[in-house]
Amino acid sequence: xxxxxxxxxxxxxxxxxxxxxxxxxxxxxxxxxxxxxxxxxxxxxxxxxxxxxxxxxxxxxxxxxxxxxxxxxxxxxxxxxxxxxxxxxxxxxxxxxxxxxxxxxxxxxxxxxxxxxxxxxxxxxxxxxxxxxxxxxxxxxxxxxxxxxxxxxxxxx
Length: 157
Description:
Layout: H1 2-27, H2 31-46, H3 50-80, H4 86-110, H5 113-127, E1 149-150, E2 153-154
Antiparallel strand pairs: 1-2
Helix pairs in contact: 2-3
């Protein structure tokens, strides 16, 4: 039993380390390189034509620039040791949701209905990943306890 617990712990640790390494790999690229890789990945996943690729590339470059500016601001705030106030936190959340709405509208203009449906599916799958997130019809947590979880969202049945 001790060996089984030890193996589970090692497996979880290794998975977490792999996730962190994958995130760090993208950070080592320039913003232009990251944008290019994202466009290529979407081209493969959604079968984008050349016009769509140009539109998506401009959109991703703009989005990445905004994210980088936000990341820099948050890093500076963290280094100062200050935390956002409740109003600042609300403003950040509101801005993030506005960006998501704008992203959805822009993608609706660029993609055809079939591509848009696939993009929504891909986006949903990405949001379900990460530490502590469960995918699929998961009704038990990692320890077998009933949680009523579905796709990483905490909902009690």
